[in-house]
Specification:
homodimer, 7-stranded mixed sheet, about 20% strand, globular
Chain lengths: ~350, ~350
């Protein structure tokens, strides 16, 4: 497609953006498996107009590399493939994305063979969304869940201190000839970045977002950042977040959000912990009891859409289609930042 | 222990209550696998002072039998045990509880062998809580999730009509020499029974519980019952409830909540659909990477308790310990109703 400059916007094809982001990571000293995998999820975020997981994230990744909290040269390896339904990948201190790409084909194979299977990623830095993981499963006709801890900035319901992470949870269901049904959300009411936005704007937070360091409800962004965020859905969301600590932290032999923050010492870098992905083969589960499960799901989705409710991720899919057809548009400032990152690598960090 | 009458309360041992409830179901024409399994969960509910799932439920079970919406003579059978990590039990139109008891040992065996496994229950009537299922797994040192549809009384976020069920979700984690970590909740803000309580008391509902039949927010219990309940946690809870329809309805080749209600024609009887239980072997998942996962979980639980937050199910466990030591106390009215059920079976229904 070539680069086109339209007024103040710069247009790139998805492949061009992928190449540029990968080049920036190569320049910063990442090996090819790390740079490629990271560039793929960042480009996917930008393509889907999911700006908070797009090129904006490059700087954070580079800072985590510079702080030596992630190994830019890590080569993930399958560390356990013996259990029939479990694949374990040791990210060896690198980013989760490269580890996921290594484990995926094994996970797909084991899921199709056994009906369900799990991919454990240990010792990784996870800093992107989880929808790329569940979408990778739906691409293979599988359903899946993904979850991971983060760092402890969320208070358990009824408590007074941060212990849980914003612990994202994602789910995907494959659809024939359509973008999959996918949701991916933080188990906190709001993301930490959202509180930061209120702080910069000098605005008070909505009620129910946070507590101060004494454990009292607060709408003051500074007090909230010094205190803790609340889980979504009160004790129910808190329970789900706790489940994620247990399953995707402790059960897989990796760090909880509290341990990840203790190790990292700051919330401004990406944390090191584990990740858990569960995959399910709809055909194996349905056993064709009531015909094709994917067809039955379409009837169900239609009843959601028909009443004016929206399926999640639709905005992303519309943006994706536009990007695939018309390219990705970056602001002049974004493009210049990306060029700087390509040219200077780690030295691009302000 | 023998029966003791203390003022107006009648005391029974847990075993005595189990025998009486089982006798009532036998009298109503249930075969021994159905009566025994049902009596075990109802007795457990009463023992744990979880009154909404205790002997109060006998009448509803009998009504569902009388309406011929459940087969009192059903013998569940393993219908598919071929997939390495899946056990499928056909409840053959009986209650889920008997089917679960049949499938459990196979699920435990497959989980220990493969690392994780699934138990699918098809064609069952589920009307008890889900914590008995996940507690049965924790008794074997396994972690687990359980979920099922119900009948469509909940609106998807942003919609106007009931489509989702109150779709319960339960999770359990085993603890050594302690009652397990277990949560079990409806994915609606409130249970339908709670709205009924407000209606009878002539009170307005809290905001955010329900919409009327035009899709507008309402605090009027009658309008809410004619309309729909809201999912907990807005779009996030709605997404989880949708996942339950997909996984524990469609994926397992069974009915969605909407289909279950269409089949049943009323919300006053227990619905027929399926149930999904996922089990995980913590040792297989942790691979002893960071020592014993159960021990690590205790450190995490302590950080919850230390800050004044409560672990879920603790009230149930305290009630259980008291019941095991001192017996279960029924009101005179409850005891007389139970005697009537024992004597008359289906004819006890008013």
């Amino acid at each position: 497609m070539g680069i086109q400059i339209m007024s103040d916007e710069i247009k790139l094809s998805v492949a061009e953006l992928q190449n540029r982001v990968e080049a920036a990571f190569n320049k910063a000293g990442l090996n090819s498996v790390q740079a490629g995998a990271l560039a793929r999820v960042i480009t996917a975020g930008e393509r889907d107009n999911c700006k908070s997981h797009g090129i904006y994230r490059i700087d954070g990744a580079l800072r985590t590399v510079q702080a030596k909290k992630v190994d830019p040269q890590a080569v993930p390896e399958i560390s356990d493939n013996e259990r029939p339904a479990i694949v374990r990948v040791n990210a060896n201190g690198g980013f989760a994305n490269a580890a996921f790409e290594l484990g995926l084909p094994h996970l797909v194979e084991k899921t199709k063979k056994n009906g369900l299977a799990a991919l454990i990623i240990n010792n990784c830095t996870h800093f992107s969304a989880l929808w790329p993981e569940v979408e990778a499963l739906t691409d293979h006709g599988l359903s899946g869940m993904a979850m991971c801890p983060s760092y402890s900035t969320v208070v358990p319901a009824g408590g007074t201190k941060p212990l849980l992470g914003t612990n994202p949870f994602a789910f995907g269901w494959p659809r024939e000839n359509k973008s999959p049904y996918v949701f991916d959300f933080a188990t906190s009411v709001a993301a930490r970045g959202e509180i930061e936005i209120y702080r910069r704007a000098g605005k008070q937070l909505p009620e129910g977002w946070a507590i101060d360091s004494d454990g009292n409800p607060t709408t003051d962004p500074d007090a909230a950042l010094a205190g803790a965020m609340l889980p979504f859905g009160e004790h129910k969301g808190s329970a789900i977040s706790t489940m994620i600590e247990l399953m995707a932290g402790i059960m897989i032999g990796d760090l909880t959000s509290k341990e990840a923050l203790d190790f990292l010492g700051t919330t401004s870098l990406a944390p090191n912990h584990g990740e858990l992905i569960l995959a399910f083969c709809p055909e194996a589960f349905s056993g064709s009891r009531r015909g094709n499960a994917l067809a039955a799901a379409e009837v169900f989705f239609q009843s959601i859409v028909d009443q004016g409710s929206r399926l999640p991720s639709q905005r992303r899919y519309i943006a994706r289609e536009q990007a695939n057809q018309n390219g990705i548009f970056l602001s002049k400032q974004e493009f210049e930042q990306l060029e700087k990152q390509q040219e200077l690598g780690l030295d691009s960090i302000n």
